[in-house]
Amino acid sequence: MDDLRIPVMCKEVVIQLPGGAQSAGMVYLPTAAPDHTGPMRLVEWLNSPEIFFPFRDRSGTDPVLINKDNVIILTAYHDRDTGEYDETDDTYKRGVRIEIHPGEVIEGRMVIDMPYNRNRALDVLNDPRQFIYLIDSGKEVHINKRFIVKAVETDTEEA
User: Fold this and answer.
1) In this structure, what is the dihedral angle of CA atoms 113, 115, 116, 117, given to the nearest 10 degrees?
2) pLDDT, the chain, mean
3) DSSP E strand stretches across the chain
4) With b meaning 16 or more CB within 10 Å and e meaning fewer, what string describes 105-129?
5) What are the two backbone dihedrals, phi and then psi, of residue 69, each rounded to the nearest 5 degrees?
6) Most-buried pick from 66, 102, 119, 140 (CB within 10 A)?
7) What's residue 159's pLDDT?
8) Which domains does the chain have, with CATH numbers?
9) Mean pLDDT to the nearest integer, 83-101
10) What mean pLDDT is predicted for residues 31-49?
11) SS3 for 4?
């Protein structure tokens, strides 16, 4: 049965669930992406159609299955030198301040991987994908849109 397994790589993340609980641990990304060479990017994996994913917290216990619909924020650190960086060179970024229910504020540069004529924060927020992501001080902050109360563009920055 091992020949039916999909090769995966581990990615260290912090997940925030409803109630404010945060857990640090590992998620498992496919080592091959369908649309480009290399492993699947975290943002692609989060926006894939699968509803549940395995998560192993730092305590090393058996993985638990988490429903993506209940993930408020998933944060991952990245390193450009090792290729563990989800941002592509041709994306635009917009400075944003996002309020998450109940009143938590997150600021960063929203990655806009959409056509040039749809490069506003509004376009990304209205896109059918479930998660958006921000780049902030060496980390990716993936936010589930269903928990966003409001967003304000603070500036514009091109890649």
Assistant:
1) -130
2) 85
3) 8-16, 22-30, 52-57, 64-67, 73-77, 92-100, 104-112, 131-136, 139-144, 148-157
4) ebebbbbbbeeeeebbbeebbeeeb
5) -60, -25
6) 140
7) 46
8) 2-80 (2.30.30)
9) 72
10) 87
11) helix
